[in-house]
Amino acid sequence: MATNVRTLDVTKEEAALLAGTEDDFIEYGKTSVKCPRCGGNLVMTDWDSSYTIGCEHNCVTIGFRGI
User: How much is the pLDDT for 1?
Assistant: First the structure.
């Protein structure tokens, strides 16, 4: 798991759920877990040394930064 997690208006439970999908995205490129707020699909966006996991409808997103 990445070293820093940045969350904005995300509960601890939502952050844990989204962070728990990291291995699915790395291994399979997708996850079957749905957004905890709206039930939409979750997507992962890679930004070189950081990435985000969030809802396709942008209702919840968390960012991860590596060192």
Answer: 45
Of 15, 37, 1, the C-alpha closest to 56 is: 37
**Considering the entire predicted model, what is its pTM?**
0.80
Are the C-beta atoms of 50 and 6 separated by less than 8 Å?
A: no
Beta strands in the chain (DSSP E): 4-7, 42-47, 50-55, 61-65
CB 36 within 8 A of CB 60: yes
8 A C-beta contact, residue 7 and residue 26? no
The Cα–Cα gap between 25 and 8 comes to 21
